[in-house]
Amino acid sequence: MYLLKNKWDEVIGEEFAKPYFLELCEFLKQEYDKYTVYPPKQRVFSALKTTDYDQVKAVILGQDPYHGEGQAHGLAFSVQPGVQPPPSLINIFKEINSEYGCNLGQNGCLLNWAKQGVLLLNTALTVRQGQANSHKGKGWEVFTDRVIKALNDKETPVVFMLWGSNARSKKALITNKNHLVLETVHPSPLSAYNGFFGCNHFKKANDFLSQFTTPVDWTAIDD
C-alpha cells in the first residue's frame, strides 16, 4: 500500500488496493528491475506529494515523464535543477515571457509552481528510458483519471489547463461548473505556433483564480 501522507490518501487511497493498480505495480517492478525507468521510484508520486488535494488551484496535464537521463522528477513538464529545459518547456516559458514581460528559460524546475498549488500531473507517471509512451495503457491512466475526477468534485474552483489532444481528451471528466477549462494545442515545437503561442492561458488562469484565492506567480520558478 502506498502512502502519500497527505489528504490524497483520504481522497484516492482506495485506488492502491484495486486489482488494476496491483497489476500495474507488478509491471513496474519488472520494468525497474530490467530497464532504466524514469522518474526514480521515490519520485513517481512527487506531483501528489508536493501539491495536496486541498491546495490544488490549477492543473497542468502532461502525457508521460521525460525519458532522457536526469530529466524527470515526477512533475509534468518540469526537469531537475541544472538540466536544460526541453523544447516544450522552452515554449511554455516563451508564452509566459510574452504574457508577463519576463525572461524565463534558464531553470526548468517547476517545483515552485507545485508548491503554489499547481498540480503538474502526467497521465502516465512512469516511462522506460528513451521510449516515450512505453508505459501507456498499463493502468496509469485509470489512476490519473481518478485523480482528475476527484479534483472535479472539489467545491473550490480549479483551473484545468489542457494542452494537446491527449490532455484535451480528459475534458469529459470535468463537469463541475465551478471550474475553468482552458484548452489549446500542445506546446511542442510541432504545434506551438498553431495556437499555444498567444493563448494567454497563464493570465486567464490568474484572472479566474484572483476572484477566489491567491493567483499563481508563474514567473517564480527558482526554488
What does this structure look like?
With 223 residues, the protein is an alpha/beta fold. It is built from eight helices and six strands. 32% of the residues lie in helices and 11% in strands. The strands form two sheets. The chain has a four-stranded parallel sheet with strand order 3-2-5-6. Strands 1-4 form a two-stranded antiparallel sheet. The chain is globular, with a radius of gyration of 17 Å. The model has no long low-confidence stretch (mean pLDDT 96).
How many distinct beta strands?
6
Structural class: alpha/beta
Instruction: Provide a count of the helices.
Output: 8
Which descriptor suits the 3D outline?
Answer: globular
Q: Can you list the strand order of the major beta sheet?
A: 3-2-5-6
Strand portion: 5-15%
Mean pLDDT: 96
Low-confidence stretches: none
Q: What is the CA-CA span between the terminal residues?
A: 31 Å
Order of helices and strands: HHEHEHHEEHEHEH
Radius of gyration using CA atoms only: 17 Å
Q: Bin the helical content.
A: 25-40%
Biggest sheet features: 4 strands, parallel
